[in-house]
Amino acid sequence: MSVLRRVGLALFAPVLAVVVAVVISSAVMAALQVDPLRVFAVMVDFGDTPSQQVTAIVVVLNRAVPLFLAGLAVAIAFRMGLFNIGVEGQYRLATVLAAGVGAAVALPGPLHVLLIVVVAMAVAAIWAGIVAVLKVTRGVSEVISSIMLNVIALGIASYLLTGPLRGSPEGASIISTAEIPESGWMPSLNGVFGVLGLANPPRQLYGFLLVAVVVGVVIAVLLNRTRFGFDLRAAGLSPSAASASGVDSRAMVVKTMLLSGAVAGLIGMPDLLGSTHAYTTDFTSGLGFLGIAVALLGRNKPVGIALGALLFAFLDRSLVPLQIQDFPASVVTIIQGTIVLAVVVANEVARRVARRSAERGSGPAAAVAGDGSTGPGQSTGGPGAGGGEGTGAGVSRTTGAGQRTDERQETGA
Amino acid sequence: MATAGTPAGTPAGLSTGGTGAGSGDGGPAPLAVELRGITKRFPGVVANRDIELRVRRGEVHAIVGENGAGKSTLMKTLYGEHRPDEGQILLDGREVSFRSPADAIAAGIGMVHQHFMLADNFTVLENVVLGSEPTRGGRLDRATARRRITEISERYGLDLRPDDLVEDLGVGDRQRVEIAKVLYRDARTLILDEPTAVLVPQEVDELFGNLAELKREGLTVIFISHKLDEVRKVADAITVIRRGTTVGTADPGTTTARQLAEMMVGTELPSPEIRTSTVRETPVLQLREVTVAAPTGRPPVDAVSLTVREGEVVGIAGVEGNGQAELVDAVMGLRPLAAGTVLLGDDDITAWSTRARREAGLGFIPEDRHRQGMLLDAPLWENRILGHQTRPPAVRGPFIDRRAARADTERIMHDYDVRAPGPDTLAVALSGGNQQKLIVGREMSARPRLLLAAHPTRGVDVGAQGAIWRLLEEARAEGMGILLISADLDELIGLSDTLHVMLRGRLVATLDPSAVTPEELGGHMTGAQTAAGAA
After folding, report:
1. Which of A330, A345, A366 delimits the end of a domain?
2. I want to staple B433 with a disulfide (CB 3.0 to 4.6 A). Which of A37, B46, B464, B523 is the partner?
3. B457-485 pLDDT tens trace
């Protein structure tokens, strides 16, 4: 019963958010004189033949893998109260360099793949590490520096692609790096369809799916079961209590950003190793920003992020069918946008409900325990701390706690 | 001065049976505030049950009770923050029903919170009017605001200058700003939630002077406290709350603090007296010329030297803001030293990290448990680990041992009488006293060599206070060294073997706690008394 209740509390906010988003976007569609019901019908229509249906599932999964990794990268930083907007730049720079290195060397199969992955993780970690060093040594807000480093990273990536790492012939419409030799490709998982007795689709299911699952499990264990994870979460919940407990907050910032960056480096790998085998001008972009939305949707917990990534991937898949049916593709963007907004609001509502029930001493409020992003910081402002208690007029004490979270929320939104 | 309006002429007598005595002398004038049979339930608990409260107009009415006894729930009911499940609220004889604090304010009830809610970077004037600004043509009408604030300040002797920045004000001044804020909204009944918890004795006297002024002007004051001596000094009537219900009323003129406390707790009381010395020779903590620098101005901690021996409690007295907090940070390694050395046992720990210091046997009960002692949004078992992340029983190698952490949390809850549903309860759900007992239990469980206890019983009820004092005594008897920083002079005098006074970052006097009175100590703390009288 208590497990049921915890699950219910945990699901409450995201489900509410999705419902609200569907309602709002239906209203928008209706205002644009598009029939929302037909749009939703197209979205859930995965095709008629088994082969088409399996293909649709593969498309969703392939899209979900990088989204999941992006959400995970953002969430790691969120859990300690850091906002890594720089995931976008980190993975783009990492992918172009990994593609370049992968094309330049010849190694036996698994080693070749491993090298590419390690290069990508290292590059992205270093790029994220710059943010951490700036924050720790100079007090630069990670939000500002990571946004600026995004611009720099994209610039460098373009330079590398068009300059030193260019592998496509002069005048080609799509510029790309040299193709990675076949030893550096990751095999697909299409074998499982045979085992499951399903039609083998023409699309390749990324082998990187397995890696992503492993990474998700490792991160979940690291955050929830290890001392390191405890320190990280403690620093996110209350920096002052964490340092009094012996957490070196500066070192923690560096470690967290390195870890977040290393995971960000993996974002481009499913596509690079599974289908494109080169970094091109039309390589998937924007995953870093979508990752923020996915992390919010998943409340910074790996399982939640996986569900959020699947939802976003499902929405993305419907882009093509919608356009075929002559519906505006922006419908999907509208739904995604309203979901994010609704999630931010719903998370806060759920957090307050749970916290209030906890303050009344009724117990289970596990839904809010230890999730960093929407998390409040602590109620500080003890005796003598004077104005720490929010800037309210003091008319209502309950708003005191809320205001503080709102400040954090703004940075998170 | 502070005892203006002694109610010697109208003894209500001590009545522990209910409200009988109150109705006896209830004249024709209706009561300012009357609560009848207030019951408030939260899921799983009854926070208030059949509360009866009768407050006459123009009196200071104290409500005393342990933390968690239901005082705050009751005051929230009266202030409209939630609605009672049963019972009636009557103001001046008329029944009212508040939907929100705004309704309560409109009805003339004002609340001064324990934790101030002021914007530091605003002036007194801006803070007072915030939320109900007088406007002229859409802009803040400063002239009107200033006139009214000056008027309020003069009428009630609050001594406020409207243009001072709040960040420049001391604690006592800030409190008067809060009071002015309430008066500005035309409150006729003021609720003061533990107003003396943050004040030193001299400021308490000033506050009591202000309360007397309020009373003279016919205002009613409801005063929540658990400092019984103060209550007896200032209140005209006392209502005692225990376990969510009113257990009786008392006349401060004829009731002793001890009798009151026994009504509150329902049992015999502990006292902080330690008199058999257990001080041994071996020093556990030595500070040598420890100096903490500030970016500007004089150093907050200036060449402080002291020694804590095994089995010794060294107390540090001082008005808040004289460098105690910085000294604590310096010992914990949370703030770099400009000069000096810190020795734990034989080890020079000056350059050690906080974690290394904790591992070497430094325990810490922080001054502000919400800021430094707990993760409020985390369950109790995670709070058990906090500060002990590298040590058993809660960790095994690089992993958190959840089962052991939960089990050990249950042990602490049992041994240290932490009242909570279980180790998975969020820390925020606990009352202040129970949170503090968990912290004390957690720190004691690691068997530290030196315990740094900053205000260990601040904001804690009498029952928990006695328990914490007893624990400190036991630990001391077993040879733990304790550095005690406190604003509670009775606690300092009662527990310490050696007592230092800190003033403007320096240790200005060393006193013998068995020979000093709270008044003398207060004199040293404010610098009024020089070190000449020191032992």
Report:
1. A330
2. B464
3. 876 777 778 888 888 888 888 888 999 99
| Paired tokens of B352 | 């050690």
Per-position DSSP letters for B109-153, written without gaps between them: EEEE-SS----TTSBHHHHHHTTS--EETTEE-HHHHHHHHHHHH
Q: B-chain residues within 8 Å CB-CB of A386?
A: 116, 118, 120, 166-167, 171, 174
In this predicted structure, what is the pLDDT of residue A21?
A: 85
A276 and A389 in a single domain? The answer is no
Using a CB–CB cutoff of 8 Å, tell me whether B361 touches chain A: no
Strands B506-511 and B283-292, by their bridges, are unpaired
Do A281 and A396 have their domain in common?
no
| Cβ pair A238:B174 closer than 8 A | no
User: Strand pairing partners for A400?
Assistant: none
> What value does the mean pLDDT take over residues B275-303?
81
Q: Do B119 and A376 touch (CB under 8 A)?
A: no
Q: For B371, which of A234, A382, A387 is closest by C-beta distance? A: A382
Q: What is the pLDDT of residues A187-241, one digit of tens each?
A: 888 778 777 777 777 778 888 899 999 999 999 999 988 888 999 999 888 888 8
Q: Do the beta carbons of residue B60 and residue B111 sit within 8 Å?
A: no
A201 within some domain: yes
Class of domain B12-265: alpha beta
Residues A275 and A383 in one domain: no
Question: The domain containing residue A383 runs over which residues?
Answer: 379-412
A221 and A92 together in one domain: yes
Q: Where are the domains of chain B?
A: 12-265, 283-370+447-533
Residue A107: inside a domain, yes or no?
yes
CB distance A237 to A36 below 8 Å: no
Would you say A307 and A7 are in contact if contact means Cβ atoms under 8 Å apart?
no
Please indicate, yes or no, if residue A29 is contained in any of the structural domains: no
CATH of domain B283-370+447-533: 3.40.50.300
Residue A19 in contact with residue A341, Cβ under 8 Å?
A: no
Q: What span, in angstroms and rounded, lies between the C-alpha atoms of B426 and B405?
A: 15
Average pLDDT of B16-31? 48
Say what percent of chain A tops pLDDT 90: 28
Consecutive H or E run containing B442: helix B432-445
Distance in angstroms (rounded) separating the CA atoms of residues A258 and A244: 24
Taking 60 as the threshold, does the pLDDT of residue A366 lie above it? no
> What does the pLDDT read at residue B19?
40
Complex-level ipTM? 0.71
Same domain assignment for residues A398 and A300: no
Nearest to B117 among A224, A364, A392 (CB): A392
Instruction: Decide: B220 and B230 in contact? Cβ < 8 Å.
Output: no
Evaluate the CA torsion angle B24, B30, B33, B37 in order and state its sign: positive
Optimal mutation site among A245, A357, A374, A407, interface B, most CBs of chain B within 10 A: A245
Within 13 Å, how many C-alpha atoms sit on residue B204's CB side? 21
Asked whether A410 and B225 are in contact (CB, 8 A), the reply is no
Which candidate from A230, A355, A360 shows the least CB-CB separation from B42? A360
> What total number of domains does chain A contain?
2
User: Which 3 state secondary structure label does DSSP give A46?
Assistant: coil
Contacts of B399 in chain A (CB under 8 A): 225-227
**Residue the block writes with tokens 């080890």:** B347
Contact B359, A245 (CB under 8 A): no
Contact across the interface for A385 and B458, Cβ inside 8 Å = no
Chain A residue with Cα closest to B385: A230
User: What's the count of helices (H) and strands (E) in chain A, helices before strands?
Assistant: 17, 0
Total-model pTM: 0.70
B243 close to A (CB below 8 A): no
CATH of the domain at A100: 1.10.3470
What's the mean pLDDT when you consider all of chain B?
80
Strongest mean pLDDT among A122-136, A323-337, B200-214, B431-445: A122-136
Residue B449 reports pLDDT greater than 50: yes
Q: Do B12-265 and B283-370+447-533 come out as alike in CATH topology? A: yes
